[in-house]
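Cont'd.
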Amino acid sequence: MMLQYLGAAIGMGFASLGGAIGIGLVASKAIESMARQPEQANSLRATMFIGIAFVEATVLYTLVIAFILIAK
Amino acid sequence: MQSLFGIIDNFFQYVFGHPDSLIFFVPLLLISFVVINRFGIIPNKLQSFIEVIFEFLESQFKPLFKEEAHYKQWMPFFLAIFAYILILNMIGLIPRLEAPTSDIWLTGSMALMIFIISTFIGIKHHGPIRYFILLTPSGIPSAIRLIMFPIELVSMLAKPFSLAVRLYANMFAGHTIIKTILSLTETFPSKLILPLDLSVVVVLLGFEVFVALIQAFIFAYLSAIYIADNLYMGDH
């Protein structure tokens, strides 16, 4: 059976869906606050990138699982 | 004891048997000596660039520590972690080389080191019994604290795991994506994909520089948070 490929692909699809929604939320809120307080833009940008990296990490956990599934 | 000596023996055999994994640090050390010797009160170009990075790190790390002495004591450690992981991440950007951080054992042992240090600091500052009592929040009934204790224990053990997998997965994924896109040139029927492929890879490599910086910062920042958490347990 080649079901592990299917599992890896479906899991990766859902994970990137969640990650995209998360990164979108983080970026939209950051842009909102930057427009509201332009003098805080630099510190907000740094915090936004840290937040995006955290959201991205959860997607990459799934990527690791997908690779484990494929390698089996 | 036999196995312990075996592990140490294996370690030294590995370190001296694989000089290629250490050889990057020889030119880096020489360059850093030259760079540091030129530092002065009036900054030159390279010094002001390094000072920008340092000032950013200082602005992020300083609020974590409540006492100036703790900050002075711990900041060199986090700067060393940041520089070390940044260099290891950047090695992966050189063609034909793998980033050492795209190996779960390296990131795992670094995360284990952070875990041992933070637990040791917590036990040293609060005592072994008080440390485990302080793991659960105060001001709630003791029965609930008893139920919460195993959950807090799991979350304590999950921290180094997520620290290791985050760094490993980020470096590994970037490398794999670049490899996959480059392999399109072999599987695609026409050679017309080559310029498109190369331009995508160049953009991705630029993105990888950014990811290397961010991940090095996040590793250092999170380890600072864990250590500061265990330093100031209970008084928040």
